[in-house]
């Protein structure tokens, strides 16, 4: 009888523990645990940057100029550096898709300038917050951009969590044909979107190579993607200037 009581108590303890989230279920995003980073400004050198394998470096923004009555490029982020030991992606933010030839040429020139410094330039990343119902227009824009981009360069884009609800296969086919990766952002500003793992459960249905974008010091839910997901290619951490 005493043995049965002991067994029951042990079973009860395990049952209660199974219902509670473990201490390690969530934690803070520690840049030291990752190897790919977004560099959005003049961030001081840190140990995790020295050992970084891949850097996404902001170069500027394409926006509409009222004075010039056209889309124009404004340089942002850091200037051209010599970083021969890391894979480099050049990031360009845009608020419009009707690029002119000068916009395209500006990007191509930047690629060559970075490459001429001996850098391992992978390609460009476009940061454009397309509404989900406007993804077809975005896919057509990316198709044109891919045609203008020299073959040795790859094309990456950032993405919003709501895109995981998108199901139009014709548009998704355009994405598959023209981009090399989608980096889905799990944060807004400097804060983690609390329920992002729920969106990531649906991302494989897009059948696009993807990485998960995290914000430094944000909430880390552990590996909330499937380890065996063939489309999952890793993580990228957005570094904050206030906490290096």
TrEMBL record:
Signal sequence coordinates: 1-18
SUPFAM superfamilies: (Trans)glycosidases
Statement: the UniProt record of this protein carries the keyword Signal: yes
Signal in keyword set: yes
Keywords: Signal
Organism: Acinetobacter thutiue
Transmembrane feature ranges: none
InterPro entries: DUF3142, GH
Domain of life assignment: Bacteria
Protein name (database record): DUF3142 domain-containing protein
């Amino acid at each position: 009888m005493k043995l049965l009581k002991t067994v029951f108590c042990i079973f009860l303890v395990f049952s209660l523990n199974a219902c509670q989230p473990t201490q390690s279920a969530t934690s803070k995003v520690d840049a030291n645990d990752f190897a790919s980073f977004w560099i959005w400004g003049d961030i001081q050198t840190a140990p995790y940057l020295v050992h970084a394998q891949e850097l996404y470096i902001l170069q500027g923004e394409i926006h509409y100029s009222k004075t010039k009555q056209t889309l124009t490029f404004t340089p942002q982020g850091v200037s051209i550096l010599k970083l021969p030991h890391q894979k480099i992606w050049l990031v360009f933010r845009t608020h419009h898709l009707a690029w002119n030839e000068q916009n395209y040429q500006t990007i191509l020139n930047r690629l060559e300038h970075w490459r001429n410094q001996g850098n391992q330039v992978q390609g460009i990343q476009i940061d454009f917050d397309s509404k989900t119902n406007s993804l077809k227009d975005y896919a057509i824009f990316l198709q044109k951009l891919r045609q203008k981009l020299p073959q040795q360069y790859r094309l990456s884009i950032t993405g919003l969590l709501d895109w995981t609800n998108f199901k139009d296969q014709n548009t998704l086919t355009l994405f598959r044909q023209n981009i090399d990766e989608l980096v889905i952002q799990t944060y807004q500003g400097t804060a983690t979107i609390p329920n992002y793992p729920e969106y990531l459960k649906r991302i494989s249905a897009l059948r696009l190579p993807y990485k998960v974008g995290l914000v430094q010091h944000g909430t880390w839910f552990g590996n909330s993607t499937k380890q065996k997901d063939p489309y999952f290619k890793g993580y990228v951490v957005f570094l904050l200037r206030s906490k290096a």
